[in-house]
## 1
Amino acid sequence: ARLRIDFDHPLRSGTLRVFVDDQLALEEPLTGQKRTKALVFGVHAGSSRNELETPPGLHEVRVEVRWDENVRTERIVGNFRSGATRRLEASLGRIRRDLNLEWK
């Protein structure tokens, strides 16, 4: 089975970590490009697309995002079928920086 993670964020820089059943499956640096200027603040946007091999069956996926002195973590459970790919859409909010996970 495969896990595809599509992650969008408003960060200049940070780190994305993905755990499957509490085992680290992915760790990658995040970077964002300056997109627009809102009032006096620059707005950044970035994305990450990854596919991971996952054993078939029921698994807990934990996504952790770190930047500056901040950490956001969310968990979601999914059933993975042999030979199939499940897509997890993850996003970090622009204002409150809430981390959202949703199966697509």
## 2
Amino acid sequence: VGRCEMTQRRHNLIALRKEKNLTQKEVVELLSKNFGIVITESYYGMIENGVRTPSLKIGLAIAQLFNVNPNEIFR
């Protein structure tokens, strides 16, 4: 993944979160409550910043949480 694509990925994910007026902490709490996925706020922040790539299970849950196609975020 090129740097430009990585930056775009981060912006898409951050924009989706902000559209729903959620903090990173709230996203982590919703992932746990709705999908049984337990990750730290720090790990989620690394996903948003393109430092970490989530597992398929986590990526799909994040996409479902924001009601978007996973390719829009994690392509």
## 3
Amino acid sequence: GPPQSSEVQALDRAIESKASNSELKTAISKVEAYRKAKQEELEKAQADLRKVLSVRQEAIATANGWL
């Protein structure tokens, strides 16, 4: 799959090193923020794509899981 983000890598290191609860919570928050930002980027890109597709093209893209 795609390479892990630095946030996920940091969380993995915190888990492996048995970091404190507060350090783990901080790392979890960073991963969640990263994922939320990526999801927002994806949704914006999908919305932008929908603007240039015909209804038929949008149907095909949706059926293929691209939208």
